[in-house]
């Protein structure tokens, strides 16, 4: 058996095997590390059925032009104490936080939590782009969620379809459409 040395690293070489150099092993190691880093970081644990006490949500929808559409420009904020804030229209980075429109009861707060879970906004980033809070897309959604001591803020450029059901619920709870 022949041994190749790379600084303090010894790599055995099998006679008759292709000639692997230390740099090839280093490249293989780096490639394996990169592939491991690219795997999904989604949690295997489902979110709890009840919202954690620190759950908060900020959903900004931009770009849709049809008034009355659930995806028309709007900004919804649900605070940990259950206050729901809402404002229709285009949000700017300098916009003041929307006014409080109501305080959600526990059942409504839980309903918002359950509508947030399927959007993927609670998961480790696998879609959208991780950004600084306040950054908005030209069209799509800006979402910031806090839960269980973690905060995730992302922009979904181009489409906000995955937030349509959540937007419909928030519009209803904010008395924008229908009664609650």
Short description, anyone?
With 180 residues, this protein is α+β, with helices and mostly antiparallel strands.
Q: Which features would summarize this protein structure in a list?
A:
alpha+beta, 180 residues, disordered N terminus, 21% helix, two-stranded antiparallel ribbon, 28% strand, Mago nashi protein, 9 strands
Give an account of the 3D structure.
The protein is of the alpha+beta class. It folds into 2 domains: 2-38, no CATH class; 56-173, Mago nashi protein (2-Layer Sandwich). Helix content is 21%, strand content 28%. The strands form 2 sheets. A 7-stranded antiparallel beta sheet has the order 6-5-4-3-8-9-7, with helices on one face. Strands 1-2 form a two-stranded antiparallel ribbon. A hairpin with a 2-residue loop joins strand 8 (140-147) and strand 9. Helix 2 (106-116) runs antiparallel to helix 3 (164-173).
Which series of helices and strands comes N to C? EEHEEEEHEEEH
Calculate the mean pLDDT score and round it.
74
Number of helices: 3
Q: Report the CATH architecture of the largest domain.
A: 2-Layer Sandwich
End-to-end C-alpha gap: 78 Å
Q: What is the number of E strands? A: 9
